[in-house]
Each structure stands twice: as C-alpha cells, then as structure tokens.
Design goal:
single chain, alpha/beta, Rossmann fold, 5 helices, globular
C-alpha cells in the first residue's frame, strides 16, 4: 500500500510504517508548509492513502467534495505520544486492506469507515 503522511503525522510513525515495508512519503520531508488541498491532491495524483491527525480533510472530502478516492485515514486517539501512534499505526493499517475509497477514523477502540464519493 502506498501512503502519504500529512505534515502533522509523527516521524516515529512514518519510520515504523517504513520499517514494516510500506511505501510512505511524508509531507514534512517532501513539501513542508503546503496547504491541505494540495496535500489531498498529491495523495490522489500518486494513488496514496492519506494518513493525518487533521479533521479538515473530512471537510475537504465531504463538504467541498474534493477528490479523495484513494482514501483518508484520520487518527483520533487519546494518547497521541509519537511512540504510541507508531505502534497503533502499524497495528491498524496492517489489519485491513480496504482503506481505498473510504474516509476512516481510527479511535482508541474502534475504526469507523465511511465510503467516499468517486
């Protein structure tokens, strides 16, 4: 799976996902400071699921209906230490293969998935 990590996604989590074999680019390394719509556009152009802590991507995908068919994974966990996020990201992303086409919200004890428009 190809992933684009938003600038706010912890470096520990990016490294952990790379260490288990994911093809992951990180906005903080690639294009720091770009606006959210450009991040989402890049994810779509490169066929990458976007991982983020930024709720604004839900607004971009649903209210503004910007293309997001490759998927968005929003992390909304209560203990956002970078080491915990790294462990949780690897655990959760590895357990499913159907992220594409969904806006997914990762919470402490559940995953909510909403189908995105094409």
């Amino acid at each position: 799976m190809r992933i684009l990590a938003n600038e706010n996604f912890p470096g520990d989590a990016v490294r952990a996902l790379r260490n288990v074999g994911y093809d992951i680019l990180w906005i903080r390394e690639e294009s720091p400071g770009i606006i959210d719509s450009e991040v989402l556009n890049r994810a779509q152009q490169e066929s990458r699921v976007l991982v983020t802590f930024d709720k604004d991507f839900g607004e971009l995908a649903f209210r503004l209906r910007l293309p997001a068919i490759h998927g968005i994974i929003l992390f909304r966990i209560s203990t956002p230490s970078s080491s915990y996020v790294a462990k949780k990201a690897v655990e959760v992303i590895s357990m499913r293969s159907d992220w594409k086409g969904h806006f997914s919200v990762i919470e402490d004890h559940r995953i909510r998935m909403i189908r995105l428009h094409s």
